[in-house]
Design a protein that fits this description.
With about 45 residues, this protein is mainly alpha-helical. It contains two helices and no strands. α1 packs parallel to α2. The longest helix has 15 residues.
């Protein structure tokens, strides 16, 4: 699954139970983690 696919799914509130993120570029890992948190968690969580 690509970076773009994960971001698009998060925007549609579609999530997998687990994501394994790895790679040499921490920007993409951080961006995915932030985006999933933004869409998956309520503000009080």
């Amino acid at each position: 699954m690509t970076f773009e696919e994960i971001i698009a799914q998060a925007g549609k509130q579609e999530f997998y139970p687990i994501y394994f993120l790895h790679g040499e570029e921490p920007y993409f890992i951080d961006k995915i983690a932030d985006t999933v948190q933004q869409y998956a968690l309520k503000e009080e969580e």
